[in-house]
């Protein structure tokens, strides 16, 4: 064993979509040795092949990973995990929900092919709008619910922790504050139970209502700001995908705010959105019902209403 991984175990991940997010995810995998085998699929097979070569040329200095590429979904065969980043990219001025029609059509084309080639794989949806597309992938794949989930608000939560940390001068990973609901404009911070090693965040001496509002505002606007400045986001979400992948490979039973189909979660069902989930080798092993105050419950209901309108 090394770093929680079985050195003789094989773990294959296929990345579908070799744009900025898919390529950066592949690079993150290569640097950390998160997987043993990696397939790269893109509608433009030359793009996938070029990415493969570029990655392979660095293998003198990285952990060994077997890499293959192409446009054929048969490359998914034997995958433990398929990460789907394919889809239209969010442009400046667009919301994630503006991408619904375009990316639903793409998923209707690719998900059945993935399911046929890798019937035992776990599907991790990263494409936006991630909640709608996770629900779509669940229907199209006919996989059990534990094996289809979206990256959800893991990145939103990381952003919130960062923006709070800037203001109160505490390291982000010491701040237990999370975003739930839609990965989008109706997301909400779960401040009622946020804490720093047990001390309620709302009672922390450097934290205030104004700090709470500013931190969430910075979080909510982050993607729009990055897209305006850089044209796309890729590095932070690739890091999230790497963490999720390692949680599966190493069977960590780690808790993340992932987009999953909910059943009677504060009375809501038949929609995918982000709630705390235990993630391990079988995918989603448990959905955790966390305490929400009345205001947070109303915000959850708004996320549900917004997303259901698009299903």
Sheet with the most strands? Answer: 6 strands, parallel
Distance between the termini: 44 Å
Mean pLDDT: 94
> Which series of helices and strands comes N to C?
EHEHEEHEHEHEEEEHHEEEH
Beta-sheet strand percentage? 15-25%
Instruction: List low-confidence stretches.
Output: none
Q: Kindly state the percentage of residues in helix.
A: 25-40%
Q: Write down the overall geometry.
A: globular
- Secondary-structure-based class equals alpha/beta
The main sheet orders its strands as 3-2-1-4-5-6
Alpha-carbon Rg, integer: 19 Å
Helices and strands in order:
Layout (H helix, E strand, L loop, with lengths): L11 E5 L3 H13 L4 E5 L3 H12 L9 E5 L10 E4 L15 H18 L4 E4 L4 H12 L6 E3 L3 H15 L10 E2 L7 E2 L5 E2 L2 E2 L8 H22 L4 H15 L4 E8 L10 E9 L2 E5 L6 H15 L3
Parallel strand pairs: 1-2, 1-4, 2-3, 4-5, 5-6
Antiparallel strand pairs: 7-8, 9-10, 11-12, 12-13
């Amino acid at each position: 064993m090394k770093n929680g991984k079985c050195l003789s175990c094989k773990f294959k991940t296929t990345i579908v979509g070799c744009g900025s997010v898919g390529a950066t995810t592949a690079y993150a995998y290569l640097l950390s040795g998160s997987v043993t085998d990696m397939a790269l699929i893109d509608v433009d097979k030359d793009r996938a092949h070029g990415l493969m070569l570029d990655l392979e040329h660095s293998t003198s200095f990285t952990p060994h990973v077997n890499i293959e590429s192409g446009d054929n979904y048969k490359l998914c065969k034997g995958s433990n995990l398929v990460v789907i980043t394919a889809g239209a990219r969010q442009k400046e001025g667009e919301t994630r929900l503006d991408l619904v029609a375009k990316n639903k059509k793409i998923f209707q084309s690719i998900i059945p092919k993935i399911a046929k080639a890798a019937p035992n794989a776990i599907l991790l949806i990263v494409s936006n709008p991630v909640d709608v597309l996770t629900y779509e992938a669940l229907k199209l794949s006919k996989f059990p619910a534990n094996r289809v989930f979206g990256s959800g608000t893991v990145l939103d939560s990381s952003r919130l922790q960062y923006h709070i940390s800037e203001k109160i001068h505490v390291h982000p990973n010491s701040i237990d504050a999370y975003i739930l609901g839609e990965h989008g404009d109706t997301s909400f911070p779960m401040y009622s139970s946020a804490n720093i090693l047990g001390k309620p965040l709302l009672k922390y001496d450097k934290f205030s209502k104004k700090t709470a509002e500013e931190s969430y505002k910075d979080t909510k606007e982050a993607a729009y700001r990055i897209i305006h400045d850089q044209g796309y986001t890729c590095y932070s979400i690739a890091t999230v995908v790497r963490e999720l992948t390692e949680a599966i490979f190493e069977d960590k039973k780690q808790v993340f705010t992932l987009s999953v189909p909910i059943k009677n979660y504060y009375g809501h069902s038949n929609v995918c959105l982000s709630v705390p989930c235990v993630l391990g080798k079988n995918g989603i092993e448990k959905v955790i019902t966390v305490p929400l105050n009345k205001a947070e419950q109303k915000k959850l209901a708004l996320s549900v209403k917004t997303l259901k309108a698009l299903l």
